[in-house]
Specification:
Length: 268
C-alpha cells in the first residue's frame, strides 16, 4: 500500500515538474493563461472555453480571428454557380478590445469575392482554432473535431460612411490590419459586415451544433476571463485505482465528463 502511494506521488510530481517546453505536450492537461493578452485577440488568454459552451466557443473564435476563409457563389463563366473561396482579413473589434461578435471586412471590386457578392451577397466563412497553430502545437490535427471550427453563413452588407458603426468597423480593421489603410487609397476597398443567418460549431465528436444568432449575440465571452484564471491551475484528476500485474503497473485516470481537458499525454 505504501509503495502504491509512493508511485502515485511520483507520477503526479513528475507531471507538475515538467519544463516549459515539455509542458507543450501536456498543454490541455495543464492549461496556462496567456501573459500577452494585449497582443492577442483571445477572449480569455490562450485557453478556449469548454467545448460544451457552443455560443461562447463561436464568439471566442470570431474574436480570435485575424482572417477567414470566405466562400461565395462564383460569377466566373467557366465555373458560374460553383463555390469559390478566398482569404479575407476580418476584425470584430480593435486589438485588445472586447468582443462584439460582428465581423467587419474590406472588399474591392477588383477581387472576385466582391464581384460574386455584388450578384449574390450570400456567403459562408470558416474559422479554425488552428489559425494561430493552437491545435498543431499540441499535437492535434486541424481536421480533428477537437480542434474547434465554426462555419458562419449570412449576407455581406456594405456599410455607408459617416455613421458610428462604420467608424467602429474601420477603426477595428485599421487596428488589426494597418495595411488596410493603403488598400483604401490604392484599390478602392469598401467596408462591409457579415449579417449572420446561421452558426455551426464543431468542437467535439458527434457532429456540429447549431447556435442561434440570439444565443450568439447574448453570450458574454469576456465572462470566461474569470474562468480562465481558474483554469491556470492544473485541473484535479482523480486516480481511481493503481494495480500491479505481470505486464507492469496500470493507473486509471478518472476525468469528469464536462472537463475542459481535451488530450492527455502521460509519461511514467
Amino acid at each position: 500500500m505504501l509503495l502504491g502511494a509512493l508511485v502515485i506521488c511520483t507520477v503526479l510530481t513528475g507531471i507538475q515538474s515538467r519544463t516549459t517546453e515539455q509542458r507543450d505536450a501536456f498543454a490541455a492537461f495543464l492549461p496556462a493563461v496567456s501573459s500577452n493578452a494585449l497582443e492577442s485577440n483571445d477572449v480569455a488568454g490562450d485557453e478556449p472555453p469548454p467545448h460544451t459552451e457552443y455560443a461562447k466557443m463561436a464568439r471566442y473564435l470570431v474574436h480570435k480571428a485575424e482572417w477567414v476563409s470566405m466562400g461565395s457563389l462564383s460569377t466566373v463563366d467557366a465555373i458560374k454557380g460553383y463555390p469559390m473561396v478566398n482569404v479575407i482579413a476580418v476584425a470584430d473589434s480593435a486589438r485588445g478590445e472586447k468582443s462584439t461578435g460582428t465581423l467587419y471586412f474590406y472588399l474591392t471590386m477588383l477581387d472576385y469575392t466582391a464581384q460574386d457578392l455584388s450578384k449574390d451577397n450570400r456567403l459562408t466563412v470558416l474559422l479554425s482554432m488552428d489559425q494561430d497553430l493552437y491545435c498543431s502545437k499540441r499535437g492535434v490535427d486541424p481536421m480533428e473535431p477537437t480542434c474547434a471550427r465554426i462555419m458562419i453563413s449570412g449576407r455581406a452588407v456594405k456599410l455607408e460612411d459617416g455613421n458610428d458603426e462604420f467608424n467602429f468597423g474601420k477603426n477595428a480593421m485599421f487596428s488589426r490590419h494597418p495595411a488596410a489603410q493603403k488598400w483604401l487609397a490604392t484599390h478602392n476597398f469598401f467596408l462591409c459586415k457579415l449579417e449572420i443567418t446561421q452558426i455551426a460549431v464543431l468542437d467535439w465528436y458527434g457532429g456540429p451544433h447549431y447556435v442561434t444568432v440570439e444565443e450568439y449575440m447574448k453570450v458574454d465571452p469576456d465572462a470566461h476571463n474569470a474562468a480562465g484564471l481558474k483554469m491556470a491551475q492544473p485541473e484535479p484528476v482523480e486516480i481511481e485505482r493503481e494495480e500491479d500485474s505481470d505486464d507492469g503497473r496500470t493507473i486509471t485516470l478518472k476525468i469528469k465528463k464536462d472537463s475542459t481537458v481535451r488530450h492527455i499525454n502521460l509519461e511514467v
